[in-house]
Amino acid sequence: MSQNVYQTLEEVKLLPLYTATDLSYLPKVEEILVENHVPLIEVTFRSKLAGEAIKQLSASGKLLVGAGTVRTLEEVKIAIENGATFIVSPAVVPEVIEYCLEQEIPIFPGTATPTDIQQAASYGIKTVKFFPADIYGGLKAINALSGPFYDIKFLPTGGINEENFLEYIENPNVVGIGGSFILSEKVIMEDNGVKMNQILQSLVEKINK
Ligand code: 3PG
């Protein structure tokens, strides 16, 4: 997948956050995302299977596969070795950012305050994760932060759901939204992806209306 993650996010608006606990669901995960024209995924380092899941999902080249919840240098190395083409962190982690810049891999550091955003911006980063968006003031905060940080785009995550995601997406300072509500292994397990497919289809339809 050679397409740039910033461009894809700008077009698709959704970044599904996925935590793998059973690798047998990965083909279904890929199928659901491809079918709904959401060709990207953030696989979180919240399970031991993250590296292997990134590797397997990257194999077909149908998805842009990134790693999330990357908090250490060790994790960022495992992620990139296994084929991750972008990295998402819950915080500004200098060693993770520096390694990504060295490897020329897009990095979305997690920020919540002006100090965090300025720290990320000092590395030349133009798009930051805003996390946890709901707790740190949601769209009101994004609008306020966009005053001084007029050259920064936001990827809000945390507390975003079917009810509020459109409001976020419609904001010009928001490049796209991330969340675990977009794609869940637990929901896929219930009926081998039927319900999950319907949920994603309905999210995409709402965006394209
Ligand atoms: C993240 O790491 O981006 C968040 O934990 C996602 O939050 P959510 O589960 O509320 O979508």
Automatic annotation (TrEMBL):
Keywords: Carbohydrate metabolism, Lyase
Pathway: Carbohydrate acid metabolism
Superkingdom in the source lineage: Bacteria
GO molecular function annotations of the record: lyase activity
Recorded family membership: Belongs to the KHG/KDPG aldolase family.
Subunit details: Homotrimer.
Protein name in the entry: 2-dehydro-3-deoxyphosphogluconate aldolase/4-hydroxy-2-oxoglutarate aldolase
Organism from which the protein derives: Enterococcus devriesei
